[in-house]
Amino acid sequence: MDTKTAKSSKIAIVGAGFVGTTFAYSLLIHGLASQIVIIDVNKDRAEGEAMDLNHGVPFAQPIKIWSGEYSDCEGADVIVIAVDKGQRIEQSRLELAEGNFDIMKQIIPSVTKYNKEGILLIVTNPLDVMTYAALKLSGFPKSRVFGSGTILDTARLRYLLGEYLRVDPRNVHAYIIGEHGDSEVPIWSLANVAGIRLKDYCPMFKIPYDPEHLNDLFLQVRNAGVEIIRLKGRTNYAVALGLTKIVESILRDENAVVTVSTFLEDYLSVRDICLSVPVILNRSGIKEIIKLPLDEQETADFQKSAAIVKRVASSLKI
Ligand code: NAD
Fold first, then answer.
1. Low-confidence ranges of the chain (pLDDT < 50)
2. Coil, strand or helix at 243
3. Residue 288, pLDDT score
4. Domain of 222, in residue numbers
5. N or C: which end of the chain has fewer CB within 10 A?
6. In CATH, what number is assigned to the domain containing residue 79?
7. How many Å lie between the centroid of ligand 1 and the Cα of residue 125?
8. Tens digit of each residue's pLDDT (9 = 90 or more) over 49-62
9. What pLDDT does 91 receive?
10. Which of 147, 181, 212 is the last residue in one of the domains?
């Protein structure tokens, strides 16, 4: 699909909170869609956000933005779910899951009543469990329901590695897979710059190759969400740009490689769960899942991550 067609696309955003509206702002700036509808149980909030965004249109690109109803999801190419019950960080993973699962049970059927052809992109946490719930509740094919997953964690790792290696983070190829959460797994065995593994790349530029330091960088990534929330109460900018990248890959039919949470039929013996792995994304959604040749420890960590997510999904009886 060319840019012109991407520009004539419609995006529905359910959840006019920090993430949903920062994403709408990013879409506006990137000129990726011609229509954005924002839906929220708090209609005033959705209306105020739509008004504010519309007043920026003269500085950006022609676009129609409005606060709407579920019926406005009709014809949307992508429906982004960024709702939240308004929970506290100290709540357990299961408590968070229960609260947001209740909301998903209301909103997914409301969306699919009016839209059976679009792509459902989930952002609500706990991400992997909510993605799995959306898949089951929608009855959509697995290629058209996925979550932003570790696209954010992968970006955080690339940013920190870029700083450490003194290269543009876009040229750092390193992935975080598994749960979007505490059990996520960095794939050091495949991390590279210019196709050169880090253990060979670092000495070429007199940068210490120290697995302990690399692990420290990973711990910063793993704790980033909690740390940002401690400092400013929310995370919104990076995730919104990650969502923009995902939507761009879809609308422009890019066949882009991104790490998103997707349904796994059999990935290193992990089955019947949504978790992040690299996928190829295009206009039809997830075209292919890329099976990474992980080392033994990474495989075990990935399987452990799957077991943790599965436990939560099972307790919710999804
Ligand atoms: P927020 O509290 O600012 O916004 C949530 C919005 O959902 C509110 O406007 C609320 O009115 C709305 N809402 C609640 N129930 C609803 C319902 N039944 N129908 C329609 N709207 C409803 O939250 P936020 O900071 O924007 O975060 C949204 C979600 O995204 C959270 O679950 C958060 O944890 C998650 N998140 C995920 C990532 C990621 O990488 N996946 C990153 C950041 C945040």
1. 1-4
2. helix
3. 98
4. 151-315
5. N
6. 3.40.50.720
7. 8
8. 999 999 999 999 99
9. 75
10. 147
**Which pLDDT score, from 0 to 100, does residue 14 have?**
98
Is residue 184 a part of any domain in this protein?
yes
Distance (angstroms) between ligand 1 centre and the Cα of 104 equals 11
DSSP 124: P
Q: 40 CB under 6 A from ligand 1?
A: yes
180 is catalytic: yes
For position 8, what pLDDT does the model report?
83
Do 136 and 64 fall into the same domain?
Answer: yes
Single pTM value for the model: 0.97
**Ligand 1 pocket check for 125: Cβ under 6 Å:** yes
Last residue of a domain, one of 147, 182, 213: 147
Residue 1: the pLDDT is 46
Task: Indicate the number of domains in the chain.
Answer: 2
Residues 157 and 141 in one domain: no
**CA distance to 71, 175, 176, 261, per residue, from 292 (Å):** 40, 10, 11, 15
Ligand 1 atom at minimum distance from 21 CA: 26
Which residue puts its alpha carbon closest to atom 17 of ligand 1? 41
Cα-based distances in Å from 13 to 41, 65, 177, 259, 261: 12, 11, 26, 21, 19
20 lines ligand 1 (CB under 6 A): yes
Evaluate: CB of 123 within 6 angstroms of ligand 1: yes
Q: Write down the pLDDT at residue 89.
A: 66
Asked if residue 165 and residue 135 are part of one domain, the reply reads no
Whole-number Å distance, alpha carbon 147 to ligand 1 midpoint, is 14
Q: Is residue 1 part of a domain?
A: no
Q: Measure 163 CA to ligand 1 centroid, in angstroms.
A: 31
The two tokens of residue 132 are: 């799995």
Closest among 47, 38, 24 to 73, alpha carbons compared: 38
CA distance 99 to 207: 46
pLDDT of amino acid 7: 63
User: What does the alpha-carbon distance between residue 113 and residue 175 come to, in Å, rounded to a whole number?
Assistant: 36
Q: Are residues 249 and 156 in the same domain?
A: yes
304, part of any domain: yes
